[in-house]
## 1
Amino acid sequence: MNVLITGAGGFLGRLLAEALLARDGGRLVLLDREKPAGFDDDPRVEALAGDIASPGVLAAAVTSDIDTVFHLAAVVSGEAEANFDLGMRVNVEGSRLLLEACRHAGRRPRVVFTSSVAVFGPNAENIDASTAVDPRTSYGMEKAVAELLLKDYTRRGFVDGVVLRLPTISVRPGRPNKAASSFASGIIREPLAGVEAVCPVPPETRLWLLSPRAAVANLVHAAGIDLPHADQGRVINLPGITVTVAEMVAALERIAGAEVAARVRWERDKNIEAIVTSWPAQWDTREALRLGFENDENFDALVRGYLAGSPPAKA
Amino acid sequence: MNVLITGAGGFLGRLLAEALLARDGGRLVLLDREKPAGFDDDPRVEALAGDIASPGVLAAAVTSDIDTVFHLAAVVSGEAEANFDLGMRVNVEGSRLLLEACRHAGRRPRVVFTSSVAVFGPNAENIDASTAVDPRTSYGMEKAVAELLLKDYTRRGFVDGVVLRLPTISVRPGRPNKAASSFASGIIREPLAGVEAVCPVPPETRLWLLSPRAAVANLVHAAGIDLPHADQGRVINLPGITVTVAEMVAALERIAGAEVAARVRWERDKNIEAIVTSWPAQWDTREALRLGFENDENFDALVRGYLAGSPPAKA
């Protein structure tokens, strides 16, 4: 495989790059606004800096040998809600330019596009392939638009596309970001590091979660999966687990103790609550599991997986 | 009302302009690629020529006094399938630029956007508000994208939008166009004028139709209707009637005689058939009727309505 990853400097992009380098000898082009660091010693890797919505950047990155594209670059939910123009530019126009670059490179690459729970509305339950999108955020609208583009580019034979609708990824290492769901990692990560964390939604709020490990495994799986129909079955609702925020904190207490769990402070933020509670928390995972995509066991496993891969707590 | 109509030189645009001038004393801006003709004597009308996808054209047309916009301009289905770049430019980028112009004019105008049966896939039956879009043509994809944009611009308070999903309009006067559904008027209009018409789909093909009269009445109705929720109920599946092509020709024979109906020649066109049979032919009309939108009685009424408004047959 000769692979391009957009948004390769982000958390998932870096994990994905490492997973691909561990298993394949092809070329790997890593693109992000700032040049993805840490891969200079690997001759298979070309790290590029560029704004995907600027003309020419993607045309230069999608060379004619690229057969697989992971399109992860995006302005996240909270930021797209705060800055409408930026979200439209990156999430819609950037995605369109990527598809155009693939079309004109002429190789019909497999394009794995990460979409989101945010394309759905609050009334959807047991999400399956027939569930109507109903975004209530600009981020969700932009992802839904990019899905439609990808499907039609695939139907026309310009690309060989797959949409993966990702649950909220938890537990992410590192620092908070501008995603409305940032707290879904923060309320576990920060207390484990001895730091107080604010939970901006009520304890009974349900989330739909997937671990970073399973997310990366599913991205890699999507690159190789056989999908016979050009215009059907190209949108896959990934597996995940339904959990309330209260259950998340209870798992933290079971695993790390009451003192750690007490570092979660409950302080509602109406903007974040409005966004997060507009996302459905229960999907029908049967089709994705049948196609070989992975799920996590339960939220305790997500916390233990984070602890196994994260630096020890500083407190 | 001070009104802008895009695509005002088209068949529906002209009918709508005439209907608005008959009932209202406000200003009426008519925009199309070529300057809409025939309105020079009316001081209320400003006719403009311009490409809606060219920067600046819509900003000049959406002046700060415009409170109502009818966005009819579009590249039709057959042409959007044949010329992907043109369809994307007009149907997606043109719609986006219109919404941007409305946003920056600052008046939050009511925007009535004409979408289409083509946003749905062939498996959809009894279409209602919860039916997932599943376009199988580039035209349908582009309309679905513009719907998502309009809904989010409305949610954010940039515009006060309403999407009307129109059935195929029949019987259109005038000449055939590049819509895949052009025959749905042609097989009635041409035989009545003494001319042979080709029907490119099998007799059992079902269509979902609405008369020009009801379409214009519904457009005008949509401009004034009260819609309380910014992010819900903004997409309306208009009423229509389900009819097979065989039933259409039978109606023609009932009304105009066997000799006229015999002018329909059956000659399948696989490209047209693939597009038209991807559209569902049965919708749940209860919600639209509850909101005060109109339907036609049956296909005989559509033919009689055409005859009442059309020049006499030349044969």
Note: The mean pLDDT of chain B is 93.
## 2
Amino acid sequence: MRAELVIVGTELLLGEIVDTNGPFIAGHLADLGIDVYYKSTVGDNLTRLQEVLSRALGRSDLVLISGGLGPTEDDLTREAVSLAAGCPLEEDAQALRWIENRFLERYGSLSAMSPLNRKQALFPQGSEVIPNPVGTAPGFWLEKQGRIVVALPGVAQELRAMFSETVLPKLRKLSGPEALIIRNLHFSGIGESSLAQLLADLIAEQTNPTLALYASGGTVRVRLAVKAASREQGLALIAPLEEEIKRRAGDYFYGVDKESLEEVVAKAFLERGLTLAVAESCTGGLIAHRLTNIPGSSGFFQRGYVVYTNQAKIEDLGVQPATLAAFTAYSPEVAREMAAGVRSRAGTDYGLAVTGIAGPGGAAPNKPVGLAYIGLACGDNTIVQRHFWKGTREQIKERLACAALQLLWKTINTGI
Amino acid sequence: MRAELVIVGTELLLGEIVDTNGPFIAGHLADLGIDVYYKSTVGDNLTRLQEVLSRALGRSDLVLISGGLGPTEDDLTREAVSLAAGCPLEEDAQALRWIENRFLERYGSLSAMSPLNRKQALFPQGSEVIPNPVGTAPGFWLEKQGRIVVALPGVAQELRAMFSETVLPKLRKLSGPEALIIRNLHFSGIGESSLAQLLADLIAEQTNPTLALYASGGTVRVRLAVKAASREQGLALIAPLEEEIKRRAGDYFYGVDKESLEEVVAKAFLERGLTLAVAESCTGGLIAHRLTNIPGSSGFFQRGYVVYTNQAKIEDLGVQPATLAAFTAYSPEVAREMAAGVRSRAGTDYGLAVTGIAGPGGAAPNKPVGLAYIGLACGDNTIVQRHFWKGTREQIKERLACAALQLLWKTINTGI
């Protein structure tokens, strides 16, 4: 099956936005063994959009569209598909009721619903409506003369939810047995080039499965891909290579495929019935934010403190004024007292603390931007790690949050 | 002048890479007033690449290509341009010497240079070579029958350097004084369709400046674009429209161009010398994280509390156990006590608090997922807002954080 992508939106041609929907869809199609031959980006212009869609329908079995389904005059995808596929637009009563219900739920009446919102219930004749679980713009799946057109809204969260819940299961049924099986192994606490060195001979010898490394925000992903007749067969081909990689770099390994560091930490705490409190200085709430993104995190995460002043460190965590005076806030001594203090104050099993300088200001002699200490307390034991990262304020926050979660994950598995 | 972009590389159609070269080039072309009508992404396949380039040369004055200039068999841009433009490939002696010199500099001999590297000295007849100051792949600028083809390597660092040093100055000479001036106005606390309704006649009448709305994560951006001979003239044309938009929707307006909500909040606090403490239940640290992303935020942000248990709300914020028992944690009464409590505990000018149910679990009778209360305390006054959002856990967190920052921004400007 040949697919192509059409990404709609003038803002994409003005360089104001980077398209991440295309890569998201393309990645999933690759997993299904569906070849993508073209991706066309076109502005909010009916003539050009129709022209691009007509060409796509002439040469591809599957055309996936992102964007142009909103309620404004600029949103022209439904009209362009209607013209390119020769299917007049029809109002879908169920979709209209569904849009009305969303307005009723949110605003208590239909008065906030503009006449333009009604346009979102129009679909090319013969379409199957794709529900939008997280927004107001429904999508559609249209089959015409052996071609399939799928239209999804451009808002990334909506597109991802609709693709995963509705489009992917339908495509799975259509695509043949041969597939590209991909398994992602996640590592933290080791750099991309150090990991590449550990795996150098495996990287050099790769054929099927193939092996590639990708770094982002303090973690490294090792992507194993294999062509096989079934998912089981593919995973069987991947298994020995995966085992060898974990044998060499297991200390840094934390999860597989979509698993995030916060997810494996949350799972580990919930499975063991343990509790956590966090004290953050330079990460400013990011660790708490990431952990509380996980559904059910209230089962282990009890409290977070963002202590941006010395006063807060003293009053909320019981850090000794003398320790602050002797060593400054950016010291292993203060990290230790913060970790022990937050654990004791919250009465949790673990207490995690981060203190350091995220920059760009705040550096002092022997205390450069990027210097930080992570403390972790459990029972009467407290450990402290020193870190030093270069980067922007946001990069430093992100890497320290990763490092802190990695320490937490490792400690809970192997003990303090 | 009409331009189009051609992005070359199979990895882009496998979803492994996000294209940032296209937005980089498109942004610069927009500044020059050059319209980009299409961006096509195509794999490393000679037939398809040639087909895409032939179509581009048939409809656009300027075709900018990224990628496919490397030394491997997969790099086919020079061949495809040669075929599409009807210009045979010729070896450029100067480029060959330049490639040889780079190998000599880097490795001390030519033995590391493969025969394929020699391919990089081939260019379509009539090309002007574009030097690569940071890599080994030169690009080219080809004019043929009134059309211009520019080919640059796909490595972002190389493309950016070559575009800025060589391509941009040449394009500036061609494009004349006319430029596209863009101004983005940011709104929060109002939906995209409601804002569109407020501005309906302005949207319908738009010509120059044009006006478009974009929604993301709880905020809406209104983009004003105008063609003018200079930036000053463009801004003068935009000014009356901007004023009219602010007159109608000023209550929701918070910033211009790259300004984020947290940035304008930070600026407002710092300018007035005020301080802030935040208590978060369902947003789980996201508000603190966003505010502490701003450099210099330690000048006004003093403390954050993530209070995921009732015990924490009582011990850290002084919420009354009786209030929790009578109204539950998800109530305006508790939001009020949290806001007043965090302000009093931290001794700050403002105290902001959010409590609610981010889901997917945790709903109770009359307390659905997405229900939340935001409290804001200043002096002896406390206000409480009710919110109800549908969405995923992360979306609800994001929208509540936006709403809380919006309330903060509005209050600090107009009083509680």
Note: The longest strand of chain B covers residues 179-188.
## 3
Amino acid sequence: MTAIPTCPEEFHIFDTSLRDGAQQEGLRLTVADKLKIAVYLDELGVTFIEGGWPGASPSDTQFFAEAAQVLDLRTSKLVAFGATRRPGGSASTDVLTRALVDAGTDYVCIVAKSHDEHVIRALRTTLEENLEMIRDTVTFLINEGKHVFVDCEHFFDGYRANPAYALSVVRTASEAGAEVVVLCDTNGGMLPSWMGDIVSAAAQTGANLGVHCHNDTACAVANTMAAVEAGVMHVQGTFNGYGERTGNADLSALIPNLQLKFGWELLPPERLSEITRVAHAIALVAHQPLLGRQPYVGQSSFAHKAGLHASAIKVDPNLYQHIDPALVGNDLRMLISDMAGRANIQIKGEQLGIDLSDRELAARITDKVKAKEAEGYSYESSDASFEMLLRQELGILDYPIQVHSWRVLSEERDGDTITEATVKLTAKGERQMVVGEGNGPVNALDMALRKAVATAYPEVAEFELTDYRVRILDEGHGTDATVRTLIDTSWRGETWTTVGVGTNVIEASWEALLDAIVYGIFTHIASD
Amino acid sequence: MTAIPTCPEEFHIFDTSLRDGAQQEGLRLTVADKLKIAVYLDELGVTFIEGGWPGASPSDTQFFAEAAQVLDLRTSKLVAFGATRRPGGSASTDVLTRALVDAGTDYVCIVAKSHDEHVIRALRTTLEENLEMIRDTVTFLINEGKHVFVDCEHFFDGYRANPAYALSVVRTASEAGAEVVVLCDTNGGMLPSWMGDIVSAAAQTGANLGVHCHNDTACAVANTMAAVEAGVMHVQGTFNGYGERTGNADLSALIPNLQLKFGWELLPPERLSEITRVAHAIALVAHQPLLGRQPYVGQSSFAHKAGLHASAIKVDPNLYQHIDPALVGNDLRMLISDMAGRANIQIKGEQLGIDLSDRELAARITDKVKAKEAEGYSYESSDASFEMLLRQELGILDYPIQVHSWRVLSEERDGDTITEATVKLTAKGERQMVVGEGNGPVNALDMALRKAVATAYPEVAEFELTDYRVRILDEGHGTDATVRTLIDTSWRGETWTTVGVGTNVIEASWEALLDAIVYGIFTHIASD
């Protein structure tokens, strides 16, 4: 009743976050973003990373050029995406096919049409010419030394409309030398119970098969699992399910499903336990909030609201969880549980080398944290501010600077926008009054603040504000709402995060800026 | 290969958004919220609405009391949730069973344990007493005039551990008179291919079966579909997939799947086409942003970004969509981005009522869009700015206001942060010089700008800035980087989005603010 298929000898996890994932509305990845994400994927150890479509978009071309220079992948292999050559042409002279070769990857994946109606109406060519395009393009790329995968676009719809033609596309690609022929549910309309027979029919061609699913029926992961059960040896997906329309099969769920439900060791267990971290890191770079209830990796995925479940969990957590969350690097979380709260604080204190084993002290700090979080502060992503709060409560926070006042002015003068900040403070007994310019009020304040502090603490001039995030907390109120700002500051390879909250975004930013400088001084610069 | 099961004569859509949905972390529903959501669900026409657990939480008790007074459901039936009586007691004297009766609904749904280990370790009673608790509670409730459903908690895990006992629970509930016995995947660890055999085994008892799935393997909808294919006549789920941990089966995907993929007419077609509106309305009440890529009902679910897709969509939209989006009340949307081709631009122009069939014109605008996107603009989520760009290129954009200068100042004075903006402009021939205060520079500029324009166009005073988003484009450069701001402006039920880009965040915000006002004037206020 719980059939477990055997893992094929060769099995590919093919990540297309950087290509199909980037098709998601609102998701824009710069070349630098893509390089960062590729490093995370390689750390996790997916088999393939599809990087983009060289030649079709200038930034994708640039990605492959930079990747060749700076990416040093240890586990994963980079893949360039492309298409079959144009009808009536030749793969050897096609501009896009050329760009694919020039991308310099060992692996390429090309999309081919496999639905007869699409060949005729969208591609406006004959069914035979489409097969010839596949043959010609695959052969050409192999002759150029590439390993070739072929994505059969609209394969499932195509098979339902004209099975013989859809299968002839698979056969043609495989016979021309494609190492994997990928069956794509491009429009995403399939259901799991419809997958098996079609995949089995395609397997009759003898091709190595892969699958590529979209989530239009909320079944992308399930459809992929069904194809795996029917014998595919290559699964395509994206992290966090990013992708065109409803997104692609979510690898952050698919990989744990295959590894923990089927017992296939696709990743070493110590890598699988990095998947929550990797999913969150990718979400951060993609600037997409990660859904709390995202399977396996979401913040709420192993969270229990107190009640019916709580007493059973005290008996044995496994009574109310389908896997041990540590396997995927996630945690069981008890919500609205005072004990869990205090335990969290104690564990964090331990990590910072501050003893909080005193129950009363830990309870007082827990209350303080809860009160601040209710105001809008968030400490789970700003350890530096949490440490400042801890030290303040323990009476061991010595402010190395005293701020008297600050102000910042932006104006348009003759078509140029100019922003200037003035900061007055005292550091090491000396009063400073400094003006800074910047590309916005926060930048100008940061410049002025660091200049003012640097007289007393010269290292502060090297501090760099590396990230600045603003979150409006009561949405629907526009600019007239409480805001939270998070600031990342880096210095000599260390990075720390501080948080500020206020109804005025400049005030919230100032708080985070000041904490960033103060934290940097007392943790990284010997005070005297 | 695409097996379509036949719809049972009686089939229930059982919504538990108000009960299990409310278990989601961060989701808090007041009694008023629940009443509003119940009205939406009734408008759509689900069979049952589970309202909460009377007696277990005071606000749930209050909900049923108020529902009895004010809710006038036309299609759906309200259900009160409860549990089997305590071990060793009697249903007739159990406080919670009593509260269930007092809730005053015709239908009740009680949870019973069906996993032997849970009976022994969590409930701390015998397997036989658990069966007796079910018999006693169901019989008592029927004698009180109720229709009774029984949720078998952990049924699938229980069946895998001890099939005979799990089936005896189903049999006991059914024989005692439960009208539906609901098989629950409480921990959410099932896969679709594991459902069929277990559901079929349960069906051997002769009970009417239902299913209740969670999304811990990203398969809640697929598991529910698999159970339906195996013969259940009752599906439980929540709107937008809200629920404990990873959430429940998402009815906003499940209902369209059953109706459009299986062809079952569960709702009249004109009601199904309300499902997108209902899903969004529920999200609004629940104060949960609706994920853009949510199947069927998400804003991105029928949105196309790739140029490859757009050219085929010009031939026939059905080539790249799995259903007609109008069936669920959603729309095809063309996204304008640097991946867009001429076809995207032409379709978008058509939607705006602007003729771009001229190839040269369309190509020129495509180039312009790509150049602006390279600078950092993003038109896929800012239709208003795209329309302004179009009108500018076509020479049909008449600026109703001329800005001379603006400036904004933030400063800390005696511990308070004050932000003031000054705007000078001419509208309808009159020069205005206005000062505004705000909770940050953008808020202050918005205030001053609208005040200055409102003398000439009084409706502008009612414009509301409802969302403001900032994205730093070259991360790793901190505040010293290009930023993009997106602003949503609302007026009398219409919302439009504008974009601004600059190295100075205030300059970028000003651009988006000004465009928002100008767009609002020329599209919504008759110009003279």
Note: Residues 434 and 499 of chain A are 24 Å apart (CA to CA).
## 4
Amino acid sequence: MDEEKDEEKEGLNVAKVESEQLQDIIDRKDREALKDVFLHVPSIDIAEAANEMEAKDLIFIFRNVESSLTADFFDALSQDTKEQLIAAMTNRDLVQIINSQAADDVADTVGDMPANLANKVLRAADKDMRKDINALLKYEEGTAGSLMTTEYLEFLDSTTVEEAIELIRERGRDAETIYTIFVRNPSRRFVGTVDLDDLIFASKDQKLNEIMNQDVVSCFVGTDQEEIGQLFRRYDLNALAVLNDDSCLVGVITIDDAVDVMTEESNEDLARMTNMEPTDKPYMETGAWDNAKRCIPWLVALLILGTFTTMVLNRLEAQDVFVKLPILIAFVPMLMDTGGNAGGQTTGLMIRGLAVKEFGPKQVLKILFKEFKSSLIVGGVVASFVFLWLLVEQYTGIVSGVGPGLEGLNIWNGSCWSPEFAGYALRNAGLVSLTMLFAIVVSKAVGTLLPMGAAAIKKDPALLSQPLLTTIMDVATLMIYFAIAMAFHPI
Amino acid sequence: MDEEKDEEKEGLNVAKVESEQLQDIIDRKDREALKDVFLHVPSIDIAEAANEMEAKDLIFIFRNVESSLTADFFDALSQDTKEQLIAAMTNRDLVQIINSQAADDVADTVGDMPANLANKVLRAADKDMRKDINALLKYEEGTAGSLMTTEYLEFLDSTTVEEAIELIRERGRDAETIYTIFVRNPSRRFVGTVDLDDLIFASKDQKLNEIMNQDVVSCFVGTDQEEIGQLFRRYDLNALAVLNDDSCLVGVITIDDAVDVMTEESNEDLARMTNMEPTDKPYMETGAWDNAKRCIPWLVALLILGTFTTMVLNRLEAQDVFVKLPILIAFVPMLMDTGGNAGGQTTGLMIRGLAVKEFGPKQVLKILFKEFKSSLIVGGVVASFVFLWLLVEQYTGIVSGVGPGLEGLNIWNGSCWSPEFAGYALRNAGLVSLTMLFAIVVSKAVGTLLPMGAAAIKKDPALLSQPLLTTIMDVATLMIYFAIAMAFHPI
């Protein structure tokens, strides 16, 4: 595998295995080569190469490679592959695999499985493991309880450093992390943590309550997973204590699970920003039909919301000013787009700030004022630009028909130098740029209020803000445009 | 601080301190209370409370709390506060603070500082620290080199477990992580890692090359930080080796820095999706003017792109079919919005898939075909819905004027039951729904090609895809609409 390493000097340095190579090794029943792959290639890469294999070939792997090397490999297989494998496996093989896994990983897998397979797994688990899995399955998806592991080290605060190190050697192998040791007092209340490095540098007869960190953050079983990601980020945690209502430790969330949560949360935000139902399935594993199902409801909902725009535009079209000055219609998409975009920027800022808890719905007035100032600057600059740009568009004939009877006039044929043309061109430019200014100010206010309002009623700010903003701004921009048009062109 | 803990039982469990409390403690010069705060409250929370204090009060903190407790506190202060503090501090105080920091954190701070302050810091740093800082400052922002720390533990592969544990006790205090030990061979090549827990469970006379992980991932100093985040996520790493071109270890990236990078990258994607310049400053620390500056260039650029739409719409308006059937104009915003939204969904999927390296630009044909299937389903369903919905809109008078001379007819006044009304209503509905089908198919293709194209020429797929898509689809939708309108309403 060395030659491949050299190829990749620009990016990363990692041994790889292709599906064909792996299949070939198994077909040849080459146990040595197989073991070599498991020694040098990261589990997740082997799992991806193995995901499309037949169950019998996977069983060959588990029978011929030590379980210490296959534990992570099993966890990294796709849910479909795991299910096929479990269905095809003898109970004896299964016992070995399941009991080499972390209980929280098995619980996640079992939670998404058909009942018959889930039962097969639970029967294969030993007593402690079964208890842990069942305990974890009780917690609602997306809470700290559903993320935590029950395999951690918790010692009494009067334990000495020497005793603690001895206990770690004894019990640490089953724990998901030994880098953070959790400490409780005699009444079982969680009181602090000790980092393994502090333990190593401490003198042997110190007690844990002398060296433990007391400035620790912990959460409760019902805490939302979005908050968990933020906690790890903010406090640079390696592991987080999960408490029950009596402040006793019932589980621990480790950094690898927290990283997965952060990824999940940012995927969810991105999906919602682009008006799709979030999913945790990778794109390539989602069929065209499933992807379509994530798109359709949103498109239809937005369409129905868009009816208001159609209605308003239809009514305005019947008005004199738009009939006599059809050029005004041509600027409608640009006005609507800018209205939506300006508010969308603000909504993006709000979604982010609310997500990382930089501010909350209580600061709405302060933020509204800040965005108002911002919108005057943005609106002023953009409107001034639009004024000039529209004069250019009209004089060069990019748009034609600036006023009744003025079709086809422009600088190229020298026909546009009448005061009448200038009067219409200036009024059109003034009308559109003033509309732009108002639209941007309103849009940034609406773009602030929608996500803030969602947060205030404890809804996901990313969920509906963007589409509602677009609809509200489409209608509002049309109204503003029409009102100003009546004043500028009193026909 | 106990009473506050109880209040927050729903969310998290963390001791807090308010700016006023902290200011009060310092004004009273209450050293005991101050130390108590540093023992119980996480550093980042104290730093946030202290960010607005005067430099002399901050100096009081550093003089009266042990440096083991203030090291993280200093790192968590805002850049502005750090600079004021450094400017106001005596060299003797500064020496103590700087040398209790991690070299990579100091390098980050120094990199953003005015030269006179940066020099003051470098003079305060001891010899080793100064060498490390200068080495780190050489690397380009956004590369592995700029993220890594030079304080890590690297042992020879023939070291025994017992020797290694002894070396960790000796040198580990200065290392940024002791949980991952890096192993080199006699020719200085990086050959593997040993996790601290494996070391603890191994027998004393084993050598590191017997127990080390060989399936390790590493990167090079020039590797892009976006890839770093993905590596930590994919391989569940705690620390990542950074190599030079000779495959020798020159630095290590730890998980806390990787988490920051992931956050930065997802902020950047969100900013670009909402058409803003990315920034790493928090919202509350950015002035209205700075925020406006992030908004304006994008709005203006999008406006200029929008000129095409204005132009096309202006031309089409002059055509017979739109003049005689003004109702058709009313559906333009809805058609354009849906065109943009459908492609936006696909663009979101592409940006995500490309970001996590699930696929690359080489798979473009496969993905284009998949999105094509998807778009036929989405387009078929949405177009069918639109057909029915438009009949409802026309018959109920939500839009009025379905054909010339048919203004104001609807079911409420019973005036719409003529074959002429039905003919126009059906043709309008057919025209709009057919346009919708084509627009969705085209939009999903364009929404695939733009980010894929950006990735193929090594540009950020999130950068321009969304605005270009909107512009292209606005124009394309209008063209399709007009072409079909000519066929349906041969006036």
Note: Chain B is about 65% helix and 5% strand.
